[in-house]
Amino acid sequence: MAAVGAAPLLPGLLPTTAHAASAARPDFPLVDAGAAVAVFVDAVDDPAVIRAAGDLQADIERVSGVRPELLHTLPDRAAGLVLVGTLGSSPVIDKLVDDGRLDVSHVRGRWEASVTQVVEHPVPGVERALVIAGSDRRGTIYGVYDTSERIGVSPWYWWADVPVERRDTVTLPAGRFLRREPSVRYRGVFINDEQNLTTWSHRTQEPDKNIGPETYKRIFELLLRLKANYLWPAMHPYSDFFNKYRENPELADEYGIVVGSSHPEALLRNGVHEWEPWAAEHPNADGSLPVYDYTVNPAVISDYWRARARQNAAYESSWTLGMRGLHDSALETKYATTIPEKVVVMNDIIADQRRILTEEVGAAVEPQIFIPYKEVLELYNAGVQVPDDVTLIWPDDNHGNMRQLPNDTERARSGGNGIYYHLSYWGRPKSYLWLDTTQLAKVWQELRRVYEHGVDRMWIFNVGDLKSIETGLSFSMDMAWDVDRWGPDEVEDFLAEWEGRQFGRRYGREIAAIRTEYYRLAAELRPEFIAPGILSVIHHGDEAGRRMAAYDALLERVRAVAAKVPAEYADAFYELVEYPAHGAYLMNLKYYWADRNALAVRQGRGAGANRFADLALAAHADEQALTLRYNTQVAGGKWDGYINPYPSQIPKAPGRPTVTRVPRTETSGLGVAAEGNETGVARPLLFSSYTRDRRFVDVFNTGFLTLDWAAEAGASWVRLSASGGSLTEQTRVWIDVDWERAPEGTLDTSVTITGGGGRSVEVPVRVVNDGARARRRARGFVEANGYVSIDAAHFEQRVARGGAHWRVVRGLGRRTGAVEAVPSTAASVTSDFASRAPELRYRVRFSSTGTFPVTVFRLPSLDERAYRRVAVALDDQPAAVLTGQAVATGNRGDAWARNVEDGVEKLTTTVTVAAPGEHVLRIFMVDAAIAVDQIVVDTGGLPVSYLAAPESHHPVFNPEPSYEPGLDVPGQ
Fold first, then answer.
1. For residues 809 and 818, is the Cβ–Cβ distance under 8 A?
2. Measured on CA atoms in the order 540, 541, 544, 549, is the torsion positive or negative?
3. Contact, 108 vs 87, CB < 8 A?
4. Which residue from 580, 617, 969, 938 is spatially nearest to 787, judged by alpha carbons?
5. Are residues 236 and 195 in contact, defined by beta-carbon separation less than 8 angstroms?
6. How many C-beta atoms lie closer than 10 Å to residue 35's C-beta?
7. Separation of alpha carbons 782 and 767, rounded Å
8. Domain named Gylcosyl hydrolase 115 C-terminal: which ranges (predicted)?
9. Dihedral, CA atoms, 332, 336, 340, 344, nearest 10 degrees?
């Protein structure tokens, strides 16, 4: 972004053919030779437009240091002028259109569209003008903020401290730019679980309030800069409710923001704060307080809703219909106990609310929305009658999986359909409130799916405290504006472009790669979900340690970029890149060391057990220091109280891990634990000439005094990373095979560890060496070490059938990408799979025979009206249909809960291998929009682990499987 106009095109901002035709025209100077052109906006235009023009004035000053004039009357003479206006509300703009000087054929009558165009001699006395014209007030506002971003002012300039590069000359290309109307009409956020935002707002913005007008001004501006137009404001007990301060709805209208309310807040009423005072002022005849139950107190509740409808009737609002309990609790109906009875009550509630809106606001007021969230979805499916002009807002399962999408009848509704989607969540089975951890490719997949189902009226994203969701929110808003802009291979391209706009193009691609890996690791296990014992520390080369090594490599890349970006970008880089990556690393690291500590205690280690305890607690202290820096040093302490993994009133991230210390003894003793064994060496170390494995043996001290030890391989072609020495705690010895020297065949040997007064432990080693020639001739995936593991995106062939096919979505799932059956609206296939169903084929070479479990790792999408199925077959054998969880139960500990905690659902059947050799494993679509991540066949040696086994050898996709060691113990 060193040169004006060098930034990528902004989302939804399209150059027209006129741009190419006018390439020779000189750029339009906003600032030149210390002077800025004035910004004109007619005084009769909408106040929201006039206010946004003031932001453009400020943005030009941010870039150049020169503040342009903001005019409401045209100058007599000017070399240049910025003309801002709305069609039908700006006489100057309307005259340009009438005179044929401004083409608005793709703007007039559209929703929030705009055109930006240089016009020569637009009005008498003005030589050139940069005209920003919108179809409506927000269309004009977005045109204004487009201009700001094109000259280098990020939407996150304030909220993420992205610096504005200063330059003396500021110009824009003379070409015509068109912003067509958005893919989704209402696009917005829900500020929710906002304790940290409340703390920060009270400390730094409004000491006499808990989120008030000054904070909402900042939120409104950010939303508009992101091309959003809609807000559900903060609603919990620790924040002030939105309508407590009359400035809030007034300001929202002045900014052009549509304010609505969440699923438990009917007709803009905040039940957490407002019901009890209302009930106290409207007691029952016997003096008791009315309860929030429509079957008990319908009149009092109706009046309660009516008062707010009357109060906010003048503002552009969104009206939530229906009813739930107070503070996000379930609907209470004392005198309606069955589902059919509750359906009748809900129908009465909606009819009453519609009557109130007609009488207080107007019969045609829109949008009106109905949100079938949690238990209300059950009532809706049981027969609740929602008027046709009301927008149905479909919720996800709170973990990024849409529960249900509209059928043909619902898609035809005049009110249309919307979604309520979580990028942050408090609730069962686990909460994720700390970091932005939802994989962007997952967001892309689900949003594409909902759009294909005709859901285009309203998208609301739960963003928690707002800050920490910067990247995810930006991507979601980009999708909402132009859902077709990014394809299944292009999510990382979004990141490269977005990061380039924040930090400069030269860093965009590398930061995008960092963020992609950050999201991938979170897809394996969110840092907020980490807990003792989830990941294996004994299998697959130390599964948890290998994951930590990946985090360590990620952090090194972060540090490398941090050392390069200019100093003025340091705060923004810390907020948007470094803190999330480093924080997630430390959250995982402290539990890795705690798991190693617990294992060490079980193994009888001495000093080494205490070393792991120290490392776990040190990682926790480092994590606390990292957050303290964010709150007290970054941006001069601007974010004091905002970033907090451990808030007092909402769910916390995993805190200080529990560790065990071993009392010191003045002894020493030899201990040995081989990979694959929690204690001892009973399970042999397995090596294959295809995967060319590395395995570890832990040599440790059972006491605290120095121990001498030695290791000796039983064959000259077995290599050891260390052959002996002295230790107080422990050391990890890595073992591999010199394949050039090893004989062919199945070979049994051992590694002998001695020490501690002559004690000797023999570690069994089994090597299967088919030779270099067989390895070179192998086709497809090769069985080794008792299993075959396949990344689903590494198929040999895919076959489209019946108008449906499998596509790879890069950056989705636990590896590099997953494979999804599309279009999401395709009909299910329930028979004759080989001739009717889209198919994936994988060539597999088996050395074993028998009937073996095969597990398909699928991403846990839902469909509460149907099924989530996929079929598996080997060769021409009959296909087995695997049925996944289709319903979000909202429980803890059941199948749905496990799926969303793990990010995958493991579906298992069996295949029969009758003869060794090459076979074809086949995956068939049964239901559309099912996504497959990995496939694992257990041929008898697969250990239990959290992640799938490392991918098997494949001559193309995985010719040299990586078995790099995990994280080293510092100082050893």
1. yes
2. negative
3. yes
4. 938
5. yes
6. 13
7. 15
8. 780-951
9. -80
- Give which of 579, 585, 530 is closest to 903, Cα–Cα: 530
Instruction: Quickly count helices (H) and strands (E) in the chain.
Output: 23, 39
pLDDT score of 4: 35
Question: Hey, what are 363's tokens?
Answer: 């019969």
Peptide bond into 645 cis (omega under 30): no
Write the DSSP string, 401-421: -B-----HHHHT-TT-EEEEE
Where does the pLDDT of residue 14 fall: very low under 50, low under 70, confident under 90, or very high at 90 and above? low
What pLDDT was estimated at residue 15? Answer: 61
Instruction: Give the three-class secondary structure for 545.
Output: helix
How far apart are the C-alpha atoms of 314 and 920, rounded to whole Å? 66
Q: Would the pLDDT of 17 be above 50?
A: no
Q: Which residues lie below 8 Å from residue 513, measured CB to CB, with a gap of 6+?
A: 492, 557
Q: For residue 342, what are the CA distances in angstroms to 148, 709, 862?
A: 51, 74, 25
Are the CB atoms for 218 and 248 separated by under 8 Å?
A: no
| 436 SS3 class | coil
* Burial environment of residue 959 by CB neighbours within 10 A (0 to 12, 13 to 18, 19 or more): exposed
257-302: pLDDT as tens digits: 999 999 999 999 999 999 999 999 999 999 999 999 999 999 999 9
Count Cβ atoms below 10 Å from residue 897 Cβ, excluding itself: 19
Peptide bond into 75 cis (omega under 30): no
**3-state secondary structure at position 167:** coil
Long-range Cβ contact pairs of 503-506 (< 8 A, separation 24 or more): 503/162, 503/565, 503/569, 503/572, 503/573, 504/1, 504/2, 504/565, 504/569, 505/1, 505/6
Contact call for residues 815 and 825 (beta carbons, < 8 A): no
**Contacts for 596-600 with beta carbons within 8 Å, 24 or more apart?**
596/537, 597/659, 597/660, 598/532, 598/533, 598/659, 598/660, 599/537, 599/538, 599/678, 600/700, 600/730
Q: Which residue has the tokens 């479990």?
A: 853
Which residues on adjacent β-strands are paired with residue 766? 686, 748
Let me know: does 243 contact 304? Beta carbons within 8 Å: no
Distance of alpha carbon 684 from the chain centroid: 41
The CA distances from residue 77 to 99, 121, 126, 650, in Å, are 20, 11, 6, 60
Ordered alpha helix ranges (H), 174-227: 195-204, 213-225
pLDDT at 969: 86
- Of the candidates 167, 172, 175, 173, the one whose C-alpha atom is nearest the C-alpha of residue 2 is 167
pLDDT at 1: 33
One-letter identity of residue 385: Q
Phi, psi of 413 (to 5 degrees): -65, 140
C-alpha span between 679 and 671 (Å, rounded): 9
Task: Give tens-digit pLDDT for 533-584.
Answer: 999 999 999 999 999 999 999 999 999 999 999 999 999 999 999 999 999 9
Q: Which stretch of DSSP H or E encloses residue 656?
A: none
d(C-alpha 294, C-alpha 348), whole Å: 9
> By percentage, how much of the chain surpasses pLDDT 70?
97
Long-range interactions of 510-518: CB distance < 8 A, separation 24+: 510/557, 510/561, 511/561, 511/577, 513/557, 514/554, 514/557, 514/558, 514/561, 514/577, 514/581, 515/471, 515/577, 516/491, 516/492, 516/811, 517/550, 517/554, 517/557, 518/554, 518/580, 518/581, 518/584
Phi, psi of 822 (to 5 degrees): -135, 165
Instruction: For 365, list phi and psi in degrees, rounded to 5.
Output: -60, 135
What residue has token string 């009315």?
290
